[in-house]
Specification:
The chain is mostly helical and 133 residues long. It contains three helices and two strands, in the order ββααα. β1 (58-59) and β2 form a beta hairpin. The longest helix has 23 residues, at 87-109. It starts with 57 loop residues before the first strand and ends with a helix. InterPro entries: 5peptide_repeat (IPR001646).
């Protein structure tokens, strides 16, 4: 597999009829990328900065960020409070975070021995994540 790194500046490039199936973009800047007539079936995007002010992600002309945010807030109770500014909401957010973290630690402890040391798809293992925190 060909590997491009920060030293390879592909900014402003045009890819026409190129097969990028199975390619992996890590720590890459795809902001303002325009994709027309592309097959994105089974695409997997993990973009923590997606909901930044003035950001949008258009799929067939529809900004999908509000839908993504609503679904993530549904999946992770308390997430909507992550930008809390008043003391009561901050306390509620912190309590939810502590409860979620406690449940995460309990779940990890209940897994078979060595599970926390397993890395999936090149990501840090649970144990590595704890060390880095």
């Amino acid at each position: 597999m060909t590997r491009f790194t920060r030293s390879d500046d592909l900014q402003g490039s045009e890819f026409v009829g190129v097969n990028l199936q199975g390619s992996r973009f890590v720590g890459s800047d795809l902001s303002a990328a325009v994709m027309r007539g592309v097959d994105v079936a089974r695409a997997d995007i993990d973009a923590p900065w997606l909901p930044e002010p003035d950001s949008y992600l258009l799929v067939n002309g529809v900004d999908v960020i509000p839908f993504v945010e609503a679904e993530l807030n549904r999946r992770f109770p308390g997430r909507a409070l992550r930008r809390a500014t008043d003391p009561d909401d901050l306390r509620a957010a912190w309590a939810k975070l502590e409860a979620t973290w406690e449940a995460t630690l309990e779940r990890a402890a209940a897994m078979p021995a060595g599970t926390v040391d397993v890395s999936v798809d090149g990501e840090w293992s649970f144990a590595q994540t704890l060390r880095h925190l």
